[in-house]
């Protein structure tokens, strides 16, 4: 048996732990092999990759990023993409392909499996924690820890200068990182994409806090957060929308809109910190290493069971399987009951 593996989409702490687990478990069987494709689907279509063995994955458990490289994009974007994938798997004698990716990569994997009969198993990953069908994705815990550490540090400098710190975190259209890091870091307020914010109410919260003699405010905002009355409302000056090569809106910079609005409304100095790609890099937490390892081990079991079109997922504390089709066009959003409880209890 020869298993192919690729990492697709944005990089994420824990990817190497999955690859390592797949290699170690697969090669326990005499004659079984793992072939790693470079640069996601590009590597599959171009037949670029490398045979992986124990030596290949030695020392990779604590490493961030992916030893295979990653790209966005899909074989479905070109007229001959699917045929090239089929030819590659046949030429390289790949019996099954493990796709480690987020919503986009898993959707592509499900289409190739369900509509074109390719032997594909999925492993969900993303720091955004927004994949439907699983209770958690590896990478999320690391991103939250990095953001929490930054919030803790920024509290002290904000307090020293009686400033408002507006901290922008990743997450795209889901507020998981903002909510969890904001809770853990004791944020004054948390803004998430799932709940449109009112800049005037936010300003009142900040002003009331400072007027009571409590130094500093820390506002944690998800990059996809939007104002209550729509973009451009309440006098907010928003940048023009931009899109990447794959048609996805480029998010970010909302903190640069919020901070001057808070200063204008409250009279308090407001500063912006965008954590950016640091949330995706570096050493994964122990939780993410364990979850990623469990996913990798379970992916090999799924291949052996010929559970193609399925992905391994976390339900409670159990690793189970779900159809990759559940990810198509969907996104897992935050628990609004928890958000409202946190907002009512701590904001202000």
Automatic annotation (TrEMBL):
Which reaction does this chain catalyze? beta-D-fructose 6-phosphate + ATP = beta-D-fructose 1,6-bisphosphate + ADP + H(+)
GO molecular function terms noted in the UniProt entry: 6-phosphofructokinase activity; AMP binding; ATP binding; diphosphate-fructose-6-phosphate 1-phosphotransferase activity; fructose-6-phosphate binding; identical protein binding; metal ion binding; monosaccharide binding
Q: Which residues constitute the catalytic centre?
A: 128 (proton acceptor)
What's any GO biological process attached to this entry? Answer: canonical glycolysis
Record-level GO cellular component terms: 6-phosphofructokinase complex
Cofactor dependency: Mg(2+)
Enzyme nomenclature, EC number: 2.7.1.11
Q: Does the keyword Iron-sulfur apply?
A: no
Residue span(s) of domain Phosphofructokinase: 2-303
Task: Name where it's found.
Answer: Cytoplasm
Pfam entry (one)? PFK
- Where is substrate bound in this sequence? 126-128, 163, 170-172, 223, 271, 277-280
Kindly list the positions annotated as binding Mg(2+).
Answer: 103
SUPFAM superfamilies in the record? Phosphofructokinase (SSF53784)
Binding sites annotated in the UniProt record for ATP: 10, 72-73, 102-105
Keyword terms, alphabetized: ATP-binding, Cytoplasm, Glycolysis, Kinase, Magnesium, Metal-binding, Nucleotide-binding, Transferase
Coiled-coil features, chain-numbered ranges: none
Q: Which InterPro entries does the entry link to?
A: ATP_PFK, ATP_PFK_prok-type, Phosphofructokinase_dom, Phosphofructokinase_III, PKF_sf
Q: What class of enzyme is it?
A: transferase
Tell me the domain of life. Answer: Bacteria
- Annotated site residues (Important for substrate specificity) in this chain: 104
Q: In which pathway does it act?
A: Carbohydrate degradation; glycolysis; D-glyceraldehyde 3-phosphate and glycerone phosphate from D-glucose: step 3/4
Q: How does it assemble?
A: Homodimer or homotetramer.
Q: What does this protein do?
A: Catalyzes the phosphorylation of D-fructose 6-phosphate to fructose 1,6-bisphosphate by ATP, the first committing step of glycolysis.
- Protein name in the entry: ATP-dependent 6-phosphofructokinase
Q: Which gene encodes it?
A: pfkA
């Amino acid at each position: 048996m020869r298993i192919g593996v690729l990492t697709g989409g944005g990089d994420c702490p824990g990817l190497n732990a999955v690859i390592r687990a797949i290699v170690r478990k697969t090669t326990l069987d005499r004659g079984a092999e793992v072939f790693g494709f470079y640069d996601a689907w590009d590597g599959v279509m171009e037949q670029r990759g490398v045979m992986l063995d124990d030596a290949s994955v030695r020392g990779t458990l604590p490493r961030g990023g992916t030893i295979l490289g990653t790209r966005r994009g899909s074989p479905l974007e070109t007229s001959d993409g699917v045929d090239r994938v089929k030819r590659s798997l046949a030429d390289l004698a790949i019996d099954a392909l493990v796709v480690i990716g987020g919503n986009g990569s898993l959707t592509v994997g499900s289409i190739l499996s369900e509509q074109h009969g390719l032997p594909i198993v999925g492993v969900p990953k993303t720091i955004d924690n927004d994949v439907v069908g699983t209770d958690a994705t590896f990478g999320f815990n690391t991103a939250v820890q990095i953001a929490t550490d930054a919030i803790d540090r920024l509290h002290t400098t904000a307090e020293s200068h009686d400033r408002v710190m507006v901290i922008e975190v990743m997450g795209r259209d889901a507020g998981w990182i903002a909510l969890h890091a904001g809770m853990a870091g004791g944020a004054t307020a948390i803004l998430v994409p799932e709940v449109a914010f009112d800049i005037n109410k936010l300003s009142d919260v900040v002003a009331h806090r400072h007027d009571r003699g409590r130094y500093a405010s820390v506002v944690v905002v998800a990059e996809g957060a939007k104002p209550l009355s729509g973009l451009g409302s309440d006098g907010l000056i928003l940048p023009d929308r931009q899109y990447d090569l794959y048609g996805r809106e480029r998010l970010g910079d909302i903190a640069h809109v919020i901070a001057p609005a808070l200063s204008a409304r409250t009279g308090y100095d407001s500063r912006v910190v965008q954590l950016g790609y640091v949330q995706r890099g570096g050493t994964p937490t122990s939780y993410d290493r364990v979850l990623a390892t469990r996913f990798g081990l379970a992916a090999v079991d799924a291949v052996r069971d010929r559970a193609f079109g399925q992905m391994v997922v976390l339900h409670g504390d159990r690793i189970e399987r779900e159809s990759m089709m559940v990810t198509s066009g969907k996104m897992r959003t935050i628990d609004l009951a928890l958000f409202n409880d946190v907002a009512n209890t701590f904001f202000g």
